[in-house]
User: Fold this.
Amino acid sequence: MKTKAAALILILALAMPVYASEGVKTGSPAPTFELLDENNKKVDIGRYMDRPTIIYFTHNACFYCTQIILYLKRAQQKFGEKNLRIIGINVMAKDNKLIRSYKEELGFAFPMFAGNRDDVLRAYKINYVPVIVFVDSKKIVRKVIGHYIHEAELHKHIGDILK
Assistant:
């Protein structure tokens, strides 16, 4: 079973395009897109950036991503939904099927969108997951973390965008 899971992860990693010179930069506006939500409805994700926001790039086969989701759920409880917005972008999803199963499996309520599109992956320079983008209340990117994060570090970066 472990061999099949490892093979699937390797296939998924090799299938993702590589965007070496592109990508969002700290201090620049967060790119926004119309993406499909869990109901297959097109939504402008920019409308969700009405307060300090975490944009969380993930996919269903990422083990570390599931751990970070637990941290994000606790962070939203700690900092409050009125102060902090969390949105997920599933880089494997082209429609709502993977989004719904992922949300149900992990039991989280924050919005998630289908992000398996070249323009989205290129704009945020998504070569792998997890990637966490911290956006302030003016929709400016303040920090991009492209790896696993510990809960204390997550809270520190949240504190920075809440200032």
